[in-house]
Amino acid sequence: MVAAPASLDTLCINSIRMLAVDAVNKSNSGHPGLPMGCAPMGYALWDKVMNHNPKNPQWFNRDRFVLSAGHGCMLLYALLHLTGYESVTMDDIKRFRQWGSKTPGHPETFETPGVEVTTGPLGAGISNAVGLAVAESHLAAKFNKPGFELINHYTYVLMGDGCNQEGVSSEAASLAGHLKLGKLIVLYDDNRITIDGRTDVSFTEDVLKRYEAYGWHVQHVVDGDTDVAAITKAIKAAKAVSDKPSIIKVTTTIGYGSPNKSDTAGIHGAPLGAEEAQLTRKQLNWHYGPFEIPDEAYDHFRQAVDRGTKLEAEWNQSLANYRSKFPSEAVLFERMLRGELPEGWDKDLPTYTAEESGLATRKHSQICLGALGPNLPELIGGSADLTHSNYTDIKGEIGSFQADSREKRYLHFGVREHAMAAIMNGIAYHNSGLIPYGGTFLVFADYMRGSMRLSALSMLGVIYVLTHDSIGVGEDGPTHQPVETIPSLRAMPGMLVFRPGDGNETSGAYKMAIQNRNRPSSICLSRQGMANQANSSIDKVALGGYILEDCTGTPDLILIGTGTELDLCTQAAKQLAADGKKVRVVSMPCVELFDEQSEAYKTEVFPKAVRKRIVVEAAESFGWHRFIGLDGDSVTMSRFGASAPGGTCLKEFGFTVENVVAKSKALLEQ
């Protein structure tokens, strides 16, 4: 790329700054300080280094840019607009943070083409970027051949002090250093300001020494306000280091150009106001009105269109050559990019009869992963240091994803649950067809909740394998017994929560989770064994809830069960039937899928005339009242658990056939 004259560089940089000032002022809401300070970084990266195509934001081999400090989103929107992305027009800039605009208050992948990652919660973006880099390196190892570097792109991140202070970024950065992800390059905006004021009130560590200890390549650009050449040189030096991720500390002035508010917390998250905006124009020698960009700046920025079009055309030719040389690999690669599942991917999912010995659903899960692995080469995942408790390994897979074995697809995340979830999101954001899954104990979903929420918000088909799902965990006690976790996950919009009641339902949960590429799934699995049910099936899980056992005529009572407690319902129903009671048993492996069924089907399962209903689940009752109503009851948890053998805990808290029968009789007698 040909370097622009210094004066043109300044014009382009100030175009970014003033678009941010004007958009935030017009909306009377936003964060102008970061884009004003980071404009030289954004310009150096997007104009002089990064491979991207404004005419096709989804071109596969583009470099990815993650604005981890998502509050500074006007930097990204300005760059998208100026370089020619049709997704962000000047009208969109003028409608910053307004209803229905493509320029929301933080970047959102589902709103704005060109945005790679939904960011805002600090630390999440840099952690997602580790997942993007994992995906790139895995696919490169899997598909690249001598003379054919089909997959060869970088992940660039802009992060700030807030991202560095959030613990999830430390987890992810540590793993990135271990994995030697050389195509991950981070620009650290060292502006020394957070909302509370100067960072030295709480943050005085040497960030670069920390990253150096993680195994990163580190650099420092002292003048990030004006020295575009130094920033560009540092990025190119980072690209030359292939065996370490890189971080470049770029010292900047937040709100650069504002004579009265720069270098203060006041410009972090508040508009400059009309008077200060005018003074800033004068300070920057900017002779243009609000939202006015000089043609010279547009002409220079828009050169990205021709560069990007050429880069994509060259890559398409490389793909064509690859296709003729390696046809079978190309078929797999292109199928994955289309997001299509292979024919027969689910053909080996196991089915069970009631006569077969029951297992813990965590064990059924392992069998499912072993059945899916050979038929789904895009399946990639692992565990947060709980492989032999979660049973998340894929049978027959030898070795794991490491710096020297990137073609492998088992990931050792270490004891880093939050980073695991964020990295899985990053793998999904890569949009390369990879299907990420990760395992931990269900109770530790609380460590991951921020990233699980972003999975749901961004419609990412991530699969959470969550074992040890109830007080049946036993001796580990209430710290490890997630009595409130399943109800809280069900409250999360867009999250599919499965609690399978036997082997068939576990297979069905995996089938639905794999098929749902646009929403995440939490598969909640037992530590203890449970019986296989006579009338369960893989396909019935798609209904969310279904009649497992029925009676003749209208039921007197409906028992609703999930997980290990489903068998309590079937056994209780048999005893009640022997006493002449007409009882229906409904299995509810996924409330969310049941809610999506027709009203006719839901009424068929739960006739309005049958008002006496009992739900049995070793969890808090929150959410079940809409199924059992005022006339129903529950066998659920209303307190934390206890440390004792799992069977003892279940008995003491009332999860027995005898108690379900007693509750049922009491309800029927009312």
Q: Which key features would you list for this structure?
A:
Rossmann fold; single chain; 25 helices; 670 residues; five-stranded parallel sheet; alpha/beta
Task: Please sum up the structure shown.
With 670 residues, this protein is α/β, with parallel strands linked by helices. The protein contains 25 helices and 18 strands.
List the helices and strands and how they pair.
Elements: H1 6-27, H2 33-48, E1 64-67, H3 73-83, H4 90-94, H5 124-143, E2 155-160, H6 161-165, H7 167-179, E3 184-190, E4 193-194, E5 197-198, H8 207-214, E6 217-221, H9 228-239, E7 246-251, H10 274-283, H11 295-301, H12 303-325, H13 327-338, H14 361-372, E8 379-383, H15 387-390, E9 410-412, H16 417-429, E10 435-441, H17 445-457, E11 463-467, H18 485-490, E12 496-498, H19 503-515, E13 521-524, E14 546-549, E15 557-561, H20 566-578, E16 583-587, H21 591-595, H22 599-605, E17 613-620, H23 625-628, E18 633-637, H24 646-652, H25 657-669
Parallel strand pairs: 1-2, 2-3, 3-7, 6-7, 8-9, 8-10, 10-11, 11-13, 12-13, 15-16, 15-17, 17-18
Antiparallel strand pairs: 4-5, 14-16
Helix pairs in contact: 1-2, 1-3, 1-11, 2-3, 2-9, 5-7, 5-16, 7-16, 12-13, 14-19, 16-17, 20-25
